[in-house]
Design brief:
The chain is an alpha/beta fold and 274 residues long. It is built from ten helices and eleven strands. A five-stranded parallel β-sheet has the order 1-5-4-2-3. A four-stranded parallel β-sheet has the order 7-6-10-11, sandwiched between helices. A two-stranded antiparallel ribbon has the order 8-9.
Length: 274
Amino acid sequence: MTLFVEKEWLRNHYENVRVVDCRFHLQNKNEGKKQYEQDHLPNAVYFHLEDDLSGPVMEHGGRHPLPNLNELKEKLEAVGITNDTFVVAYDEATGPFATRFLWLMKYCGHEKVYVLNGGYSKWKEAGYEVDAKIPTFTKSSYNVHVQSELLASYEEVKQVSQYGGAVLLDSRESRRYEGKEEPIDRIAGHIPGAINAPWMDGVKEGVFLEAEQQKERFSALEPTHEIIVYCGSGVTATPNYAALKSAGFEKVKVYIGSYSDWVSYKDNPVEGSK
């Protein structure tokens, strides 16, 4: 099941699609919106990782917890998205912010949502149209239908870490997984029992690998196994969610709090720390 569309397809079907710009920079939280205001795909609306796709940070729940779904519903309605709208999300290139939006929409029960493969950079590189107009749409009605099977709770992850029953898949780069460095969280390492599949291995030159290549990445895993993907804060886990689904894996969940939530409980063990 592919969750990606190519730029050529989007260009040829544009009038039937609502496009969502998800560009964001973790080191400069306003940069993505500034880029959107400078130019974007025609009629694209903007969703901000922290203002729209995440909730407030608390003691537990990680650095990018789930947003309030009523507030997300209101945002979707404000930009005219209904349950039947065909939605394509993009970010600068490689996809973690667009795939965060995609996963969140899937969690809300939205079926027709995809990521633009290659993002803004490949679209513009091809010479396709961009503009700076901020579109307005008639307010719509949207109904959230939560798909709880797509979300792994902290309690579930703790159970799996201790007793098994599912595959814990760490999506961060290997040095962070191995505990050799940790630039953000209070302690280096990974959740005990997790295996490592860096999300960037599923991308080449800003484009997601095709389904057969994604299958090769995950060839050590059984397609029937339940897989829980996590990262540092529930953002870069989502490209692996999309890659696994494209590769034919059916039971894929995201631990949205991820490692930042896990280590917020100071008694939790980690593996690989110095």
